[in-house]
Design goal:
heterodimer; A: about 300 residues; alpha+beta; Alpha-Beta Plaits; four-stranded mixed β-sheet; B: about 350 residues; Formate dehydrogenase/DMSO reductase fold; about 70% helix; globular; binds iron/sulfur cluster
Chain lengths: ~300, ~350
């Protein structure tokens, strides 16, 4: 079934994929303004999904030694230690969440003259966006990646042949082919967050959201989450947190809206997110036309080569 | 101990401080400042190795050779036909090996054929190859059968021999998509220097395919029969070079990786060899040696094109600059990509 918005634009992904009466679309709203960087989500995800380790490296990136999402990292908490000067879009201080104050290395509470910290933490738990138009799923040649009835995107381990095409297709760099460790399950095939498809099927909350102590990760129906996100944004703006912004909530954006979207306190790229991601298959009709024209050119050129002089 | 990094410092260092003058090439676009998360990549490079550019080269060579073979067949140039058919079968065999070898689970190769997905260039490409392959193979087998002494051609062998001509024609008609689709395979990704090349890349690739196959004809076919191969080689080389120029202009900042490091060296070699080969092909006339040298230059040039473009894409994925800057510029212009009814 190929409809008008099959490659781009707002759609209900489950209906588009042929489910006749699917349950409400499920997703995450991650409110990074209340994230405390505890990494409970990372741990819960690892444990629930029995994901192998992906190396134990010291990366020198604040408290982040995980680095990025990948085959064996389906939740990733980013840490950014930011001096006040860098703060984007307004002079407001962080909302007082009643969290412990920030100290400099010599033990003093870091403070400007007005008593507000001259430094802030940005922490954000990243995850597969379960895009409305998921490039990974579009380009998968085996049908291993599929759309669930919940509108999420899941790899079928027993079908993936490890072609790796989904990896460069994802505009967020989420999905990856598992490299190791040797003997671990699913080495050689693509892996990413399933939005806990098994738990959803049993009516449960995904492990990461369940484990989140601050409700930074909110799980629910995407429609409802989008409403909640708008409300939270208004509240923060009213409180003077002008730099708060939503990311991935708009069904008209480059991926047709993400099933997992965010409230951020700085530009997306500060958190390692692409500022204006687009599903590559949006341009597929044009690519197809160009390739067809090129193929015709080649054929015509070959025919021409045989015309004329006999030598 | 590892130096502790700050994202914003890091971003500044990467954004402003890095000089883009590697290998003596001056960047075409002024330095853009951008922010990143500790300079880490955003999109992931494809987990592909040399298999994939080799696959693209041999696919192009097979396609071009099948067309030369069919033309040779129709215009009674038996050596051109034979060289074309055998070359296409050999190239096709290499493409299959590289395609399978590249998989994370080679034993599951056939899963490619469990579905047909129009949104997946890899799926469509596998089906294009499946349509082309058997005919190219049959044409080559008939060629080998015809090399047997007359008395040994019986039964199936006689049938194979008889089917050579029609099979060769089908192969020639199904060949152009084999050469063109690999461009879509690369372009249909979030890899900046591949996706941004989507307008011209198919023309670069078919040009490269024609140059390689024509080059092989020049190299392996005596001058009396090599006229069409020469014309195909020159036409292909000109198309490839012109399309490549246009491509670099339309890619904006994502053209930079085509000029840097390994990719830059490969692309420069590709341009030099292709130009040299084309001029040589034009001037070689009845000289066998000149034909061989020009043919070899064109083939090597085509290999360099495929590897160069492959590497440029991989590098563009590893540097967040090529993902962030074009997107950030869109946003700052107030023109994010949004669906409009
Ligand atoms: S974020 Fe990437 S991996 Fe997740 S659904 Fe979208 S394209 Fe696929
Ligand atoms: S690696 Fe697996 S999931 Fe990814 S595109 Fe290939 S077959 Fe599909
Ligand atoms: S939804 Fe499940 S699989 Fe996805 S990040 Fe959370 S715990 Fe991991």
């Amino acid at each position: 079934m190929i409809g008008k918005n099959s490659l781009f634009g707002p759609i209900d992904p489950a209906v588009e994929s042929g489910y006749s009466d699917p349950p409400a679309r499920k997703g995450f709203f991650t409110d990074t303004s209340v994230c405390i960087g505890c990494k409970a989500c990372e741990v819960a995800c690892k444990e629930w999904n029995a994901i192998p380790d992906d190396g134990f490296d010291f990366l020198g990136m604040s408290y982040d030694n995980t680095g990025a999402l990948g085959a064996s990292t389906w939740r990733h908490v980013a840490f950014i230690e930011q001096p006040a000067g860098r703060r984007d879009g307004g002079s407001s201080a962080p909302v007082d969440l009643g969290m412990p104050s920030i100290r400099t290395s010599d033990g003093d509470t870091a403070a400007e003259e007005d008593g507000k910290p001259d430094f802030r933490w940005l922490m954000s738990s990243d995850v597969c966006k379960h895009c409305t138009h998921a490039a990974c799923l579009d380009v998968c040649p085996t049908g291993s990646l599929f759309r669930t009835e919940f509108g999420t995107v899941v790899v079928q381990d027993d079908i993936c042949n490890g072609c790796g095409y989904c990896v460069p297709a994802c505009p967020y760099g989420v999905i990856e082919r598992r490299k190791g460790p040797e003997g671990a399950k699913n080495v050689g095939i693509a892996q990413k967050c399933t939005l806990c498809y098994d738990r959803l099927g049993a009516g449960m909350t995904p492990a990461c959201a369940q484990a989140c102590p601050t409700e930074s990760i909110q799980f629910g129906d995407v429609d409802e989450l989008r409403r909640r996100a708008e409300e939270r944004l208004e509240k923060l703006h009213a409180d003077g947190v002008q730099e708060a912004r939503l990311y991935g909530h708009d069904p008209n954006d480059g991926v047709g809206g993400a099933g997992a979207f965010f409230l951020l306190l700085d530009e997306p790229e500060v958190y390692g997110l692409p500022p204006d991601p687009v599903v590559t298959t949006r341009d597929l009709p044009r690519m197809f036309n160009r390739a067809t024209a090129a193929a015709v050119t080649l054929f015509a050129g070959a025919v021409l080569s045989f015309l004329g002089r006999r030598r | 101990m590892t130096e502790l990094k700050r994202p914003e410092q890091d971003a500044r260092r990467r954004g402003r401080g890095r000089r883009r003058k590697r290998d003596g090439e001056q960047s075409m676009v002024p330095e853009a400042e951008f922010t990143s998360y500790y300079g880490r990549p955003i999109v992931k490079p494809a987990p592909w190795e040399a298999d994939i550019p080799a696959y693209m080269f041999f696919g192009g060579l097979a396609a071009g050779s099948s067309m030369l073979a069919a033309g040779g067949d129709l215009t009674e140039r038996p050596t051109l036909r034979r060289v074309g058919r055998v070359a296409s079968l050999l190239s096709l065999t290499v493409t299959l090996v590289t395609l399978i070898h590249d998989l994370g689970r080679p034993s599951r190769f056939l899963n490619m054929l469990r579905t047909m997905k129009l949104t997946s260039p890899m799926s469509v490409g596998t089906w294009i190859l499946s349509a082309y392959g058997p005919f190219a193979g049959l044409a080559a087998v008939s060629e080998l059968v015809d090399m047997l002494p007359e008395g040994n051609r019986r039964g199936v062998l006689r049938l194979a021999s008889a089917l050579g001509k029609p099979a060769g024609m089908v192969a020639a008609v199904t060949a152009p998509p084999v050469a063109a689709y690999t461009a879509v395979l690369l372009a249909d990704t979030a890899t900046p220097s591949w996706h941004e090349a989507y307008r011209e890349l198919p023309f670069v690739f078919v040009g490269s395919a024609a140059a390689a196959a024509g080059g092989l004809g020049l190299l392996a076919v005596p001058p009396e029969e090599a006229g069409p191969a020469r014309r195909m080689a020159v036409g292909g080389a000109v198309l490839e070079m012109a399309a490549e120029q246009q491509m670099e202009r339309s890619m904006g900042i994502t053209a930079e990786p085509l000029h840097q490091g390994t990719a830059g060296r490969l692309m420069r070699a590709s341009k030099a060899l292709t130009a040299l080969g084309a001029v040589g092909a034009l001037l070689s006339g009845r000289s066998r040696l000149a034909g061989i040298v020009s043919g070899a230059a064109l083939i090597t040039g085509s290999v360099c094109t495929r590897f160069g473009i492959f590497h440029a894409g991989q590098e563009s994925a590893k540097d967040p600059r090529y993902t962030v800057v074009p997107q950030r510029e869109r946003l700052d212009r107030g023109q994010p990509i949004r669906y409009e009814d």
